[in-house]
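Chapter summary example.
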Amino acid sequence: MKAAADLYMPVSGEIVEVNEALRADPSLANTDPQAAGWFFKVKITDPSEADSLLDQAAYDELVKNA
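The structure predicted for these 66 residues follows.
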């Protein structure tokens, strides 16, 4: 089944590249999300917005007991 949904980003910016490999193999988003399964690349317009984001260790701690 195919579905479409909006994606929300925690920073503002412009999409500068889309991963065309996902069109051929959407399962990459689940099987390899931090490498081949990326969705798009963004040029951030206000880098200070990233200051409030979690780093990997903080995110791992947040979801550990979710």
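To summarize the output: The beta strands are 13-18, 40-44.
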